[in-house]
Amino acid sequence: MVSPVAPPDPHAPFALAQEAAERLAELTGVERHDIALVLGSGWSGAADLLGETVADIPADEVPGFRAPTVAGHGASIRSVRIDDDGEPRHVLVLGSRTHYYESRDVRAVAHGVRTAAAAGVGQLVLTNGCGGLDPALLPGTPVLIADHINLTGASPIEGATFVDLTDLYSSRLRDLAREVDPTLTEGVYVQFPGPHYETPAEVRMAALLGGTLVGMSTALEAIAARHVGLEILGLSLVTNQAAGISADPLSHEEVIEAGRAAGPRISRLLAQIVRRI
Ligand code: 8IG
After folding, report:
1. Fold of 12-276
2. pTM, two decimal places
């Protein structure tokens, strides 16, 4: 018998992203955006420091975006205008992201990035809160992502599309970030599927594999972003030592608190970096 279920249409996510970008242009009055920013745990203050907020839109008013399900995660999409010198630039600030752990839906995870590309964006800044694998990496430390290891077992790419991931996290943009803060160190971000945190044995494995940071976002989004040609900067905030690194158990409240404490400092850093892009 022939299956009555149609195969998934690989173009559908891009059509939805196009629709979302058109709706964003209507709602913000900004025809094209130049830079997109995805704000993870601890990074939300940066939007206020970037420039003038032209529009602030509840995410669920834009096709394909969902209201976030996690306490401490934002829920709006902002258009911010940077007017330093020369041509004004428009930054699309995605205050909410869909995580893979919410429903293992890679299309939903990639939608923000694809919408940004459809809105005209050339550079994408992905931020997150994460666990640190090196005992010397203390909570509150921002780290540049130099590369990633994707342990989700998933990809946002559908079909036989062989996307090159060399220099995925742009060395040009990392250099530029270090011009703002020469003390920034680099690390390899390991994306686990979550939503549970790792066991101490998994944390030791991630370190053996060459990881520096563990988290539940960013890698899948970076892959989707490279696929659509974006230049990517990744910034992590270490909000906790990974499981087993310190004797204390992990708690979401502790993660939120570390993000809150580091917030003003890393938000200033991020705003300075974005203004240089
Ligand atoms: I914030 O220690 C934050 N997110 N997987 N492990 C994983 N995700 C995280 C962690 C962590 N801290």
Report:
1. Rossmann fold (3.40.50)
2. 0.95
